Amino acid sequence: MRVIGILLAAIGVIWAVVAWNMETVVATESTVIAGIYVPSQEVHNIGLIESRRSHLMQASVMTIAGVLLLGFGVLSGRGSSRKEPNFPPNNPEPEDNLPHLYTGRGLNGHDVDDLPKAEASLRAAGIIVRRSGSKWELQDQNGSLSYIWSRDDLIAIAKARGTTSS
């Protein structure tokens, strides 16, 4: 989409420059009317002016379309660079599809029914919990960072992986 946008914008700009330089004047013939000599003159031709205006409008539409395609191509290209989580080859992906930070090794599960208890439970298990806008950032002692967007998911992780908070 970006390449097509660049092409359209370039063609539109070149077309606009050519259209802007179109001639709109014509020369009249010199004549003698009733014994009076009328010299030749250059006058603006309405048909040529209209043709130039039409070309300029079409070139500007093509340029704008090219710029829009280029912009949307750049925006759509940003989302395609996201990477999937890279799990170590000897450690398969956990069954519950949570990052390896939540495998719960050595942690005791318990009942957690509200958000403050869930956060306290994860902190007690050695996991750093920070609220960042509409998500929670969870980080273990090794520096592995994961994100949770749902309150219910955070509580479920604390139920499965947390320790009893005092």
Q: What's the quick description here?
A:
The chain is α+β, with helices and mostly antiparallel strands and 166 residues long. Helix content is 45%, strand content 16%. It has 4 helices and 7 strands; from the N terminus they run αββββααβββα.
Structural overview:
The protein is an alpha+beta fold and 166 residues long. The chain folds into 2 domains: 76 residues; 62 residues, Metal Transport, Frataxin, Chain A (2-Layer Sandwich), CATH 3.30.920. Helices cover 45% and strands 16% of the residues. The strands form 3 sheets. The protein has a 3-stranded antiparallel beta sheet. The chain has a two-stranded antiparallel sheet with strand order 1-4. It has a two-stranded antiparallel sheet with strand order 2-3. α1 runs antiparallel to α2 and α3 packs across α4. The radius of gyration is 35 Å and the shape is rod-shaped.
Descriptors for this entry?
two-stranded antiparallel sheet, rod-shaped, Metal Transport, Frataxin, Chain A, 166 residues, 2 domains, alpha+beta, 7 strands
Q: Tell me the strand order in the biggest sheet.
A: 5-6-7
Total DSSP helices: 4
Structural class: alpha+beta
- Order of secondary-structure elements: HEEEEHHEEEH
**Helix share bin:** 40-55%
List the helices and strands and how they pair.
Layout: H1 2-20, E1 25-27, E2 31-33, E3 36-38, E4 42-44, H2 46-79, H3 115-124, E5 128-132, E6 135-139, E7 145-148, H4 151-161
Antiparallel strand pairs: 1-4, 2-3, 5-6, 6-7
Helix pairs in contact: 1-2, 3-4
